[in-house]
Amino acid sequence: MSSPEQSAGSTAHHIQHLNPKVIVISVAAAIGGFLFGFDTSVINGAVNALSDEFALGAGLTGFAVSSALLGCALGAWFAGSLSNRYGRIPVMVIAATLFFISAIGSGLAFGVWDLIVWRVVGGLGVGAASVIAPAYIAEVAPAKFRGRLGSLQQLAIVLGIFVALLSNALLANSAGGSAESFWFGIDAWRWMFMLEAIPAAVYGIMALFLPESPRYLIGKGDLDKASRVLYDFTGELDVNLKIQQIRHTLEREDKESLRDLLGGRFGLKPIVWLGILLSLFQQLVGINVIFYYSTTLWQSVGFDESQALLTSTITSIMNIIATIIAIVLVDKVGRRLMLLVGSAGMAVSLGLMALAFSFGETAAGSDAVTLGQPWAAVALISANAFVMFFGTTWGPLVWVLLGEMFPNRIRASALAVAAAAQWAANWTVSASFPSLSNIGLSFAYGLYAAFALLSLLFVYLWVPETKDRELEDMEDLQLGRQGKGAKDAESA
After folding, report:
1. How many domains does the chain have?
2. In DSSP terms, which residues pair with 362 in a beta bridge?
3. How far apart are CA 93 and CA 203, in angstroms?
4. Distance of CA 43 to the CA centre of its chain
5. Model pTM?
6. Which residues of 149-185 are buried (b: 16+ CB within 10 A; e: fewer)?
7. Cα 58–Cα 64–Cα 67 angle in degrees, nearest 5
8. How far apart are CA 419 and CA 122, in angstroms?
9. CB 226 within 8 A of CB 219
10. Could you give the CA distance from residue 103 to residue 57 in angstroms, rounded to a whole number?
11. What distance in Å separates the CA atoms of residue 185 and residue 208, rounded to the nearest whole number?
């Protein structure tokens, strides 16, 4: 008779077709990713206007732009323990409420410091959504289709970025500038923030109608509800076997906590470090510099505000296309090869951006950088190539891996720690960019290129393939290019 671990791999083959219901609930859960993208990118079109209105210097501007990311790290850190205690759905509702409050508060801010407070509140929601959506989708998705469904999180993020940039451009153009007065005499940049209240309300309402994660329900002993979710949504035919497998992986620890992540030579289990490093590299290549500062960046190379907003919007469309490509490929090609290609492509495109900006000229009495031809074209093409390589690989695949690579008993907590590390790195990169750009844009992009090269080495040596593996098989996940370290990961 086979053990639960031996039988787990075969369960995936019972599910031949993707149940439309699991697509629906995965899309609904991924709306948190939409708000995640919208909230973190909406600042792009407002940064110059709010900087002028509140008379901010470079340092305070960088802090205002990146302040939401401090909340993101905190939200991610606590989302795991909250979702383990109260369930995945209540955390989604809390996140939606935080998004709504932040949207209204940011739009009505009377000074930079209360704006920062409201942005941090929104960041708490973003951080919670960044943990709960990939965990929830991974827990309801069949292994055969988990990569595609997990990639919906990143697709929702890039759609949120696109809608934020598009609405910013429409509002700025309609008002005659982001700092100009618009509806009800309120400045356009304030409306940029307040529009987020609409998708926040939709997310909160939809979350109330989602089924709870079957793995959470089994952990709480509610087997009847878990059975219904597995059969009706996941499409699991042998529900009793699946419940047996899930219970086997959960029963080793009565109660999940951050203490379960401890172990190994460096304080944490190797699989947890793997998740943390994946998160760090996703941010250290500088992707969010493109989305937070691209409008300002393209203005610095000769575009007016309207052209810069349009260019930023086009870049976000490229990101959407890239994510769709990733969804098509991820369950066919696998995670590992795509990450390797992405790292190599990002290193080359970032290197070309660094080279292009080394030819930039600064006019007397101005901080603006001017790029002549062909370097302006090289910078523009390279930036979009960078977005494409990131969007087809590291953007969606890190979320897929974080949702699926951890064993059941530590998934939510480990994902929370990895996501918190990701947001801390995001904040560091975003807050430091104004200072790095003062040293030189060539230096900044050269630094990001170096991290892209390091990410290539990291994936080649340590990142395993998780394609087609059941979540219950992740206990035996092999770390390292040649599979070494699997048992060490558990025994260390």
Report:
1. 1
2. 369
3. 8
4. 17
5. 0.70
6. bbbbbbbbbbbbbbbbbbbbbbbbeebebbbeebeee
7. 130
8. 16
9. no
10. 24
11. 36
Closest CA to 427 of 329, 283, 263, 220: 283
Q: Quick count: other Cβ atoms within 10 Å of Cβ 364?
A: 4
Count of residues in the chain = 492
- Strand partners for 369: 362
pLDDT tens for each residue of the chain, 492 residues long: 334 334 434 444 444 566 778 788 888 888 888 887 887 778 776 777 777 777 666 667 767 777 777 788 788 888 877 888 888 899 999 999 999 999 999 888 887 788 888 989 988 998 888 888 888 887 787 777 777 887 788 788 888 888 888 888 888 888 776 667 777 777 787 888 888 899 899 999 998 988 888 888 887 777 888 888 787 777 677 777 777 777 776 665 445 455 556 666 666 788 888 999 999 999 999 987 776 566 666 665 566 666 766 776 777 788 788 888 988 888 888 889 999 999 999 999 999 989 988 887 766 555 566 667 788 788 878 888 998 999 899 988 998 888 788 877 777 778 888 888 888 888 788 778 877 877 877 888 999 999 999 999 999 998 888 777 766 566 556 566 444 433 333 333
HSE, side-chain direction, 13 A CA sphere, residue 16: 0
Q: How many helices (H) and strands (E) does the chain have?
A: 21, 2
d(CA 133, CA 91): 10
CATH classification of the domain holding 31: 1.20.1250.20
What are the structure tokens assigned to 490, written together?
Answer: 């558990």
> Domain range for residue 461?
4-491
Instruction: Give, in order, the Cα–Cα distances in Å from 382 to each of 27, 93, 349, 352, 439.
Output: 32, 39, 5, 6, 21
Does the CA dihedral 478-73-132-326 come out positive or negative?
Answer: negative
